[in-house]
Amino acid sequence: MKPPISGYWIERERPVGWKVLERTEVLGGAIELIADPTGLRHRYQLLPWEHSIDRSTGALLAKAVAKVRSEPPSSMSETEAELRAHVLSVLRSMALPMAIEDEFTDAVMRNTLGIGVLDVILRDPRVEDVFVDAPCQQTRVYLTLNQSGPGHVFGRCETNVIVSEGEMGALVGRLKYRSGRPFSRSTPVLETDLGDSRVRATALCPPLSPDGLALALRRRSDLPWTLLRLAEHGAMDEVAAGLLSFLIDGRASILVCGARGSGKSSLLSALLFEFPLDQRVLVIEDTREVPVGALQALGFKVQSMLVGPAQGKDGAGSAEEALRVSLRLGESAIVMGEVRGKEAITLYEGMRTGKAGSSVLGTIHGDGAREVHDRVVNELGIPEASFASTDVIVTMGLIRPGGGLGQVRRVTEVAEVVRTPDGLQFLSMLSYDGRYHLSERFMPLIARIASGWGMGYEEGLANLNRRIELRRVLLDMGRGDPSYLSPASILAANEYLWQGNGGSAADFISYMGER
């Protein structure tokens, strides 16, 4: 069923025999996560507010939606707050015989200027991805859910929502209009951010999608990722977090690899909060993934450079151009959203000659250090001598615990790139047996970083182990107060270490409590 204002069909009835696992409410809509008797199939059961109201309220809502559609805002590029203010002004001019509640305003917003029921789904903090496959009127919307906690699996599940063909066309039309980018048979892919950059949208049309329009929406985390937030989600523990913090502070050049959806960009973003405040950072990306605003709010010196054809009229040019400019902007850490194409040659040439600044971070598709090496050297044409400028390759993997259908994201490898007479070797810095353990072998990179700090190898290891201990304490504190996993707390913990404090865990807890 669906009200006249909506282009979404909602199947209200719960399948017989399915049980409710969780209940929540988003924007006035009721949501249940349900499972079939086997526990293998899950469904995201949604009843949006506008699909649950009585007939008289529905009639008022239809009147309000029609009024807003007849009086659109002057520009769809306005912020969400500005669009909401416009909707409220139109509603007040109608002299509605009822108080304008938040749920009413939200429903008008999403059914005029938003993306309808999909807006409700994307407000659920558990949702990561939403997919509408073609033909949309014959397939259910499905999504990816994730929740926090070590060992908590995530996976895809269907919903009880179907998008009508007309609604899909209108939705994609709004995306095209707001982006100002071409989308047609000759350009059948549209990539754009929704208004507040909280959601990344990718739309397909014929001939690339022969059965009609298709849409994928990726929801970004409401809070910036830190290594400890990733640890809280089971992607690593304090040992891996401490090692990565040490490597960033030591200005190592790191590539983060993995499959799509494995968490590469999340890990890359988290690494940036481990830099010292005085480290200048240049971020080059074609999709806004790095939390530049959050970094700047803490006092980090960050310059963002938006590039690539996907950015259309907003783009600053190619990634290669931006990289060449960044190499002339003085000593800085360079962060590449994704290493690919011609810019990889420029990047590695800069690294080899020392022009690439203090360190280089980036993501790249690949499953492990050796596969990344083969791709960079053989496919992208980077000489092996230049590739050796990479210090570490971190692999994010999608693990299916026990061979089940659920998945967890996890750091599966931290490999040091080591030159030997027989060529490059990729030596693990961590082992994993349910917990992470530092390698017991001599690690040349640890020695090199320690030497740069005027330390011997054992002193470097002591510094690393101190970081691990501080992160263990923060994770314990974070179980009672998540703010201890935040960027501000990470910065405070690092400053505690940089000040030379060598006190007990109790001293550190007291220090953090005073912040």
Write a structural description.
This protein has 515 residues and is of the alpha/beta class. It has 2 domains: 8-219, Beta-Lactamase, CATH 3.30.450; 227-470, 3-Layer(aba) Sandwich (Rossmann fold). The protein is 35% helix and 23% strand. It has 17 helices and 21 strands. It has helices spanning 55-70, 80-93, 102-110, 117-122, 165-179, 227-232, 238-249, 264-272, 292-297, 319-326, 342-353, 369-379, 384-387, 444-452, 457-478, 487-498, 505-514; strands at residues 8-10, 19-26, 29-35, 42-47, 127-132, 142-145, 155-159, 161-163, 189-193, 199-204, 214-219, 254-258, 280-285, 301-306, 333-336, 360-365, 392-399, 408-420, 423-428, 430-432, 436-438. The strands form 4 sheets. Strands 2-3-4-7-6-5-11-10-9 form a 9-stranded mixed beta sheet. The protein has an 8-stranded mixed beta sheet with strand order 14-13-15-16-12-17-18-19, with helices on both faces. A two-stranded antiparallel ribbon has the order 1-8. A hairpin with a 6-residue loop joins strand 3 (29-35) and strand 4 (42-47). The protein is globular. The N and C termini lie far apart (53 Å). The model is unreliable at 149-153 and 309-316 (pLDDT under 50).
Summarize the structure.
This protein has 515 residues and is of the alpha/beta class. It has 17 helices and 21 strands.
CATH topology of the largest domain: Rossmann fold
Shape: globular
Report the average pLDDT across residues: 88
Total number of distinct structural domains: 2
* Class from secondary-structure proportions: alpha/beta
